[in-house]
Amino acid sequence: MTSSPPPPRHIRTGTGTGTGTGTATAGHGDLPAAPPADYDVRCHRRLRGPYTGGSALLRAVIPELAGAHDELIAARATEVISLTPDQAPLVPIAPQTLTALASRAERTRFYSVARTLRVSHGVAELLMDWARALHPGGAVIRFREVDDADPTDRELVAVLLRRCDPAVLRLVVESDSLADDELGKALHTYTDRAADPVPPFQDRPQDADLAQAWIDADGTSTDPELLAAYQALPAPERAARHSARAALLAGKDEPGSALGAQLFHLEHGTDPAAAAGTAFLEACESCFDSGFYEAALDMAQRGRALFGDTRPKPYWNLTNKIGACLSYLRRGEKGFSYFAELRSGSTEPEIHMNSCYMMAMLYTRHLPKGMHDEMRALEWVNTAIAIADWNPDPHRRIFVGAFMRNAKALVELHRADLDAALALVNEAIAMTDADLGPDEQLLHRSVLRYNRAQILAAMGDHDGSLADYDLVISRDPDYGDYYFERAGGRRANGQFEAALADYAEAIRLSPPFHEAHFNRADLLRELGDEEGALRDLDYAAILDPYHVDTLVNRADLLMALGDTERAAADVAAGLVLDPKNANLLCAQGTLLADAEQTEAALSSFTAALEADPSFVAAWVNRAVLAYTAGRPADAVDDLDHAIGLADDPVLRGNRALALYDIGAHERALADLDVAVPELAEEDPDLLFRRGAVRLALGDREGARADWRDHLAAYAAAGEPSPHAEEIAAAGAAESAA
């Protein structure tokens, strides 16, 4: 008999040049050769900036799909246009959100830093569909120069490694390092090493201009001979050649070149300061608008440095962008100095207003939770409003005044002053409605209505909130996030089917969206569709394997479905991420108890309570374990804690059983007097228990009455009482007495 060959895995190769960070690969040795690639993709960010590799790949893939498989393109329209806006004509139905359509001056909503990750998941699914449709025997894609790629490409390759089946779409990734990021982890987990069949340096003519060859490679060559020739050029000639190359690239107008190679050459050309005020500023703002914040930050920092000692307006614009990028990238504490520089270096009111606004957003949103300070946020946003209200242009005054009031509403919302937040948003809406025509500043006005919807929902006015969501969806029907938020409002309002329809639309319109599947799973389970809920949780876990609550909810659902093996795997994975998670520790205890590992289960429940003493389920489960183990007094103690946290007839019924066993009959009767009226119709055994307690207290008539009701309930159900013999024996004993 012959064994089956192992399934294929993705491949990591190295150039051997050690250009990346981390541990460089020393040599190929006896490594097997990497498979030949069907598509060879360069990722060096100096070529085209963000998504240099991803965009090059889609420019090969989308034309192949066009015509024959337009439905696959349409399903991932947002992702295609995000990476390759030049391919919009090939997208059957391009998304038309107000965010995408707004001019830069009208933009008041910017993408989440997580958007690129969502886009990467969509690209992964598109590529798998492409490979199945057009390459049924499998396809191989080679990503080169990944160590020098923009973070967007590194994130994309990491997602592809994790999500693409190598039997369908196999990746060969050129990397000399295993950096401490998601790509480094993915390379370590999903790849095998192989030798690179492509030599790092190509043969060249004997009379080649080596210096020009280095420049024509747009600064991506690692050939030491080319670099040495370039460095030997006189500085003025180097600069002139860079400028000439920049002009040549600009004339070609290749997609993405203005975000990569052109910037590199202008930066080293004859007039770098002029480039900083034009090309760098435009590229930075373009990347910022697209949500490519790491690239925008890099461009802003490089552009600022080109001004030397001068401080023209573009310098301040780039400075503001640095602070804004750091805020969006969750590194807001590093932004303080840039906003301080804006205030200390300029007397322009608009610059001070924007700096004050960003300071307020840092303190109320962007800083780590422990650094939030709503009073400081209030101080800064009030200053921003004071400056906005003195703008000499009446229309600009209304626009920025409404914007800053909306910002203050967020601060008030975080201060839990919902009335103040609502008043501010209403004021901002009234200001803009009075000043603008019905079709002007639609994005800004939609954002205001959306924020009011959220405030009204927080106030419990779901009808008012849904009315605002209806309005913004009518204005911006392709924006998926609105449907997601309305789904939550409809669920809160009891409109479950409409909520499911909104979740479906949010999923259809958006790149893969973890939260939509996570929330829909919760609703589906509430409605009894456990299989549908599990499908959503499975997909949510693929999109975000580090989201602990997904693992918590899926483990709980799997336990309910009897799949203890998968549940245990989720519990174990979750506890690696959050070792003190009370839900997971409690679930672990339940699994151990079911496996009759009593002491281990007890330890898990105890650990859950140490992590969260208010966690009722852990008190209850430990009580059940104690009672089952023959320790009713311990069970009573734990149930005392549970009922003290959340009084409940079911818990009182359980405690009554343990109280009876330890002879605390009066306390048991008090608990059953609460439990019986609420639960006896569904659980007539409670009547039997109360009868036994009453008999123990000497109340024979009360005991007989409860037992008659107990037996009658079983008779009405057509079933014999499991306690009939005990009741008969007790009656006989009483007669004998």
UniProtKB/TrEMBL annotation:
InterPro entries: TPR-like_helical_dom_sf, TPR_rpt, Ycf3
PROSITE patterns: TPR
Residue span of region Disordered: 1-37
Keyword annotations from UniProtKB, A to Z: Repeat, TPR repeat
Residue spans of the TPR repeats: 582-615
One of the Pfam families matching this protein, by short name: TPR_16
Database matches in SMART domains: TPR
Protein name (database record): Tetratricopeptide repeat-containing protein
